[in-house]
Amino acid sequence: MGRMSEESGAARELPEYAERVLEVAELIPPGRVMTYGDVAEWLGEGGPRQVGRVMALYGGAVPWWRVVRSDGVLLPGHELDAMGHYRAESTPLREASRAAEGHIPRLDMRHARWDGEERAESHT
To answer: Phi and psi for 38 in degrees, rounded to 5?
Structure first.
């Protein structure tokens, strides 16, 4: 049975692709991230824009802060919420330069990026 989504007050089953994207988001361990493109590659279909669209429409019920832009920039408009999660999970961050708008740190993609290997090894 698929997840349900609230749309216009009526519960509807999610599209299959959206369900699969959200399942991958739930697999990402605390303190780690995957890019939109990583998720699409993991699934073997779609691309970063499709994954981003799914996360924008349906991602509120999963750890959305673990699916990120490849440059490590935090999701505009959600920076403070995301930072709370990153700090609680000890996600590696890079301090913002003084020239950066708002001095908001970025994700340290070299250390935070998860390739799914730990999951694959623990579930085989």
So the answer is: -60, -45
CB atoms within 10 A of CB 104: 16
Rounded Cα gap, residues 78 and 65, in angstroms: 9
Helix axes 16-27, 36-43, angle to 10 degrees: 110
pLDDT digits over 72-103, tens only? 999 989 999 999 999 999 999 998 766 656 67
Distance separating alpha carbons of residues 20 and 18, to the nearest angstrom: 5
Spatial separation of the C-alpha atoms in residues 2 and 19, rounded to whole Å:
7
Share of the chain above pLDDT 70, in %: 80
Instruction: Give the length of the chain.
Output: 124
Q: Are 58 and 92 in contact (CB under 8 A)?
A: no
Q: Is the pTM of this model over 0.90?
A: no
Q: Identify the residue whose tokens are 């399942």.
A: 23
Q: Is 52 in contact with 17 (CB distance < 8 Å)?
A: no
Q: Is the predicted pLDDT of residue 1 greater than 50, yes or no?
A: no
